[in-house]
Amino acid sequence: MEYVSVRGDKVPALGLGTWLLEGDDCRRAVPIALDLGYRHIDTAQIYRNEAEIGSALSRGAVPRDELWLTTKVWNDRHAAAAVTTSTEESLRRLRTDYVDLLLIHWPVELDRLDETLAAMQALCERDLVRHIGVSNFTPAQFRRAAELAPIACNQVEYHPFLDQEPVRQAALDADAVLSAYSPLARGGVFTDQTLQRIAAAHGKNPAQVSLRWLLDHDGVLAIPKATSRDHLAANFEVFDIALTASERSQIDRLARGERLVDPGWAPDWEE
């Protein structure tokens, strides 16, 4: 396993993303991931799987202090009281005394950003949350948040077809990390000829090469979603790949602004 430093803590660089992982699929996948060596689980209030994840973690196969657990505050819970009550509810569902990272899920209601962040910091003071951060924030929005609170992370869509260098640099400038969701472009990496060619040269598949490329960036975590043992295991087998500078440059050139997650409340990334 590789680690990224987050404000004095070591975070497993590769985690399990659980967006769209629900019900029995989630109950099966999380224990398999833990058995394979995953120690970083990412969820959110809106994913509606915190209870399933909590059930899996409560079995005690892995000590809590060896895990990095992230959840997110949903869009209608930005008022201070709602931040507090919803996070306490998340902890009960997750069956844990604390989460390692609590994120604002989307940059909505930014007129009360200071209130939201203050409530999140109050949770840190109660030892219910260890670090706070944001998700889907543009560089300008991130810098604004970082002026108000010690932001540890910005979680955004990031894969070979979407350049996120300005977002990553903003995070680095604030001593924060970037967490990459949808790092395999929802399977799109498998059909790209450049990634196929590089993967073949390493005896790997395009998903593994894409994850390796992401993790080669300073301050980047990746949280691919997978359900089956085979896919979970394959995503975890990226620590023995050494991409050349030429291969990384070839992957860099695949960026084409392909944004796969763009709901109506998403920010204007051109601002």
Summarize the model shown.
The protein has ten helices and ten strands. It is of the alpha/beta class.
Question: What labels describe this entry?
Answer:
alpha/beta, TIM Barrel, 10 helices, two-stranded antiparallel ribbon, 271 residues, eight-stranded parallel sheet
* CATH homologous superfamily classification: NADP-dependent oxidoreductase domain
Q: How would a textbook summarize the main sheet? A: 8 strands, parallel
Corresponding CATH architecture: Alpha-Beta Barrel
Number of helical elements:
10
Mean pLDDT: 97
CATH topology label: TIM Barrel
**Per DSSP, what share of the residues sits in E-state strands of 2 or more residues?**
15-25%
SSE sequence, one letter per element: EEEHEHEHEHEHEHEHHEHH
Radius of gyration: 18 Å
Tell me, what is the CATH class? Alpha Beta
Structural class call reads alpha/beta
Q: Whole-Å distance between the termini?
A: 37 Å
Report the uncertain regions: none
Question: Globular, elongated, flat, extended or rod-shaped: what is the shape?
Answer: globular
Count of individual beta strands: 10
Give a structural overview.
- The protein has 271 residues and is an alpha/beta fold.
- The chain has a single domain, classed as TIM Barrel.
- 39% of the residues lie in helices and 17% in strands.
